[in-house]
Amino acid sequence: MSKVVAIANQKGGVGKTTTAVNLGACLGELGRSILIVDADPQGNATSGLGVDRSKLDYSLYDCLVRNVEPVKALRATEFPGVWLLPSSLDLAGAEIEL
Predict the structure, then answer these.
(1) What's the Cα-to-Cα distance from 16 to each of 47, 75, 82, rounded to whole Å?
(2) What DSSP state is assigned to residue 36?
(3) What's the pLDDT score for residue 95?
(4) Residue 15 CB partners (closer than 8 Å, separation 6+)
(5) Contact (Cβ atoms closer than 8 angstroms) between residue 64 and residue 92
(6) Residue 47 neighbours by CB distance under 10 Å
(7) Over the stretch 57-77, which tens digit does the pLDDT of each residue have?
(8) I need a surface site. Which of 16, 44, 50, 56 has the fewest CB within 10 A?
(9) Tell me, what DSSP letter sits at residue 78?
(10) Runs of H (alpha helix) within the chain
(11) Whole-angstrom Cα distance, residue 42 to residue 91?
């Protein structure tokens, strides 16, 4: 059975990204299939998982604003079993466009 774990806090700099990346990597090492959704325009989870944002074809922004199927934006990471729906700087303007 799948489970969703949301790591959230209104305050910045409290370790949300660090927690998500490390928890995901650990669970992946234990054989779990993990999807991390990077919803921060800064894209630190994307970078932290070894994905070069300058080489992305699609990101979460494209899924939200341009109706790109999320599966097209998914990227494998350097961690076994860990997949990423990456962020981009474009995400900063998504609220206005939506």
Answers:
(1) 14, 20, 17
(2) E
(3) 83
(4) none
(5) no
(6) 16
(7) 999 999 999 999 999 999 999
(8) 50
(9) S
(10) 16-29, 44-48, 60-65, 70-73, 94-97
(11) 9
Nearest CA-CA partner of 21 in 2, 55, 47, 42: 47
User: What is the identity of the amino acid at 81?
Assistant: G
pLDDT value of position 98: 82
Whole-number CA gyration radius for the chain: 13
Contact 81, 33 (CB under 8 A): yes
- What DSSP line would sit under 8-28, residue for residue? --SSSSSSHHHHHHHHHHHHH
Residue 78, judged by CB atoms within 10 A of its CB (0-12, 13-18, 19+), counts as: exposed
Is pTM beyond 0.85 here?
A: yes
Amino acid at 46: T
